[in-house]
Amino acid sequence: MDKKKLPISRRKPYLAHKTCLIDQNAEIGSNTKIWHFSHISSHTVIGDNCSFGQNCFVGPNVKIGNGVKVQNNISIYEGVEIEDDVFLGPSMVFTNVLNPRSFIVRKDEFKKTLLKKGSSIGANATIVCGVTIGEYALIGSGSVVNKDAKAFALVVGVPGKQIGWVSYSGNRLVFNEYDEAKDIYDNSYYKLVNNELKRLK
Q: How far apart are CA 6 and CA 144, in angstroms?
């Protein structure tokens, strides 16, 4: 039957390419799009208005918020939690065990990794399990992050180190003598207080 002719109660609220594999008991929000050759595992919760590129895998029991953009070739393993409006660049990597061995099962040792609202992970970056990426932090392409990143932090390198601060829009901030900065994108103001960035307005 043509999808357009299906009763509203039987239509899927999301779009999935015919090559995708969606396991039973996966919860996927409205207007989410899942493209070619992706696999969404059971007991995963995905919010509204998300986008998954080609060849993505989402493991069981993963929680993903609203408005998340997952680019091509990304695997999101059990133990990872992603809040709203997070961006994951192409081929970035998550881990979930610190000391893996092929001959030892460590499913009960998965470390929690949390990506907070609005954070962005650059292409080919690696996020080592057990860390928290703060709100609106920006992780540079190719970085290896093995410790927590503060809100609005700009982190680059191997291992990843904070080299500055970014705004809500992702622009690098330049501070005046009073440790204040303005982002010309939206005229928002920021202030450094005890090495933490506060958005004033």
A: 47
